[in-house]
Write a sequence for this structure.
């Protein structure tokens, strides 16, 4: 069954596989806090793909590249998975270098030019 990120009521009673340490999307937080959505926290997204295939979890949330890579590395048939076409949430990612790194400024400048 395809879960629609625009209809959060469809998530009630489901099992979210979200790796340990990952922050779930803000939209799902109320469901998690009210125990209307169960959260399983394996060590990585690859394990999530395997758990979904075993029907121990219902879905995971990741950007499309990470999700596709997890499915590929799991050795499972990508045809066994469906992906939403709607964005569940957006997060900013930052390139972080220690201040004491001898080439910190150059690394950040190179990264920014590559965007």
């Amino acid at each position: 069954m395809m879960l629609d990120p625009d209809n959060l009521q469809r998530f009630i009673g489901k099992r979210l596989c979200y790796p340990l340490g990952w922050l779930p999307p803000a939209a799902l937080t109320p469901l998690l806090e009210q125990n209307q959505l169960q959260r399983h926290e394996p060590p990585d997204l690859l394990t999530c793909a395997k758990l979904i295939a075993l029907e121990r979890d219902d879905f995971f949330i990741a950007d499309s590249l990470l999700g596709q890579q997890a499915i590929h590395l799991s050795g499972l048939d990508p045809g066994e998975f469906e992906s939403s076409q709607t964005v569940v949430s957006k997060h900013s990612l930052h390139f972080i270098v220690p201040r004491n790194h001898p080439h910190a400024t150059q690394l950040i400048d190179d990264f920014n030019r590559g965007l």
